[in-house]
Amino acid sequence: MGFGCMGLSQAYGPADEDASVAAIRTALDAGVTLLDTAMSYGGGHNERLVGRAIAGRRDEVVVATKFGIVRGDRGVSLDAHPDRVAGYCDASLKRLGVDVIDLYYLHRVDPEVPLADTIGAMAALVEAGKVRHLGLSEVSPAQIDAARAVHPIAAVEFEWSLSWREPEDDVVPAARAAGAGLVPYSPLGRGLLTGKLPAGPFAPGDFRAADGRFAPDALDRNLTLVAELTRIAGRLGVTTGQLALAWLLARGPDVVPIPGTRNHARVTENAAAAGIALAEDDLTALAAAAPREAWTGDRRSFAAHGTTRTTG
Ligand SMILES: NC(=O)c1ccc[n+]([C@@H]2O[C@H](COP(=O)([O-])OP(=O)(O)OC[C@H]3O[C@@H](n4cnc5c(N)ncnc54)[C@H](OP(=O)(O)O)[C@@H]3O)[C@@H](O)[C@H]2O)c1
Asked: From the centroid of its chain, how far is CA 209?
């Protein structure tokens, strides 16, 4: 199990700085060895948090960060121009306080730049010893193939959960064919799959307010399915969120989910899901109780707000 750090700097409302550093350390204490961050999260804030948290513990952790989304005073944009990749990498190394990034992702493909050129610039970072492995985030099968023609791809990150299963049709097989590890982001369905969504309207800055799966009608239907998951989780003696994470882990030894939380107890709860092995009967019960086609709402509804390609 990995730990996704994004929510400590953006997307789900405010977070306390010292508590965030402590949350990351709690994840390490609980056996998590993969930390997921990005240069865009909080405009550099998140990488600095990770840097503070891993100071003195560098050898315990695989540091994964990303470039390609630029979050600045004038909003959010994409930039993966080969001339600027090395500069982005140097800035991330500095914020993280490390000599080398273990896994460096292209966060989003830049439509203005040939993908092979971006990957070529990333490969140069591996040669220079600044990066150990390359990853891709939110890519198509064709983009996976184009990238791996330039340099081996160690990991592909994409949204995947019990409630968002489209990638099983294309990205999952393509990433496996490329020999890449699978890193499902938002593995708890952005909180939906925990059965513990905050009551009332989302806090200012919570990006679920613009997500079609959380629109009132869709949410009502989806919560009916979550209630089924909670029933199964209760029978197994685990939490609903742990069940969702264990389901992902059961998809293969190459799957490393990266749940995120600002809450200490939840860090430990989520990490403990790595120890839950679901039996075939449990997986069958899950498939029957919450089938793929029953979930309502499209994450692409973000497009209406112009943020699809830049979320997360
Ligand atoms: N590559 C990309 O484009 C991309 C996009 C999105 C995310 N990501 C990565 O994936 C990571 C995880 O995704 P995510 O944070 O969007 O979604 P997530 O892990 O599916 O869900 C996070 C939400 O669930 C809540 N939560 C977490 N554990 C819980 C528990 N045990 N019980 C109840 N509620 C719980 C959190 O609230 P609290 O904080 O209040 O606990 C938060 O609102 C991010 O941190 C980021 O590193 C990558």
From this structure: 19
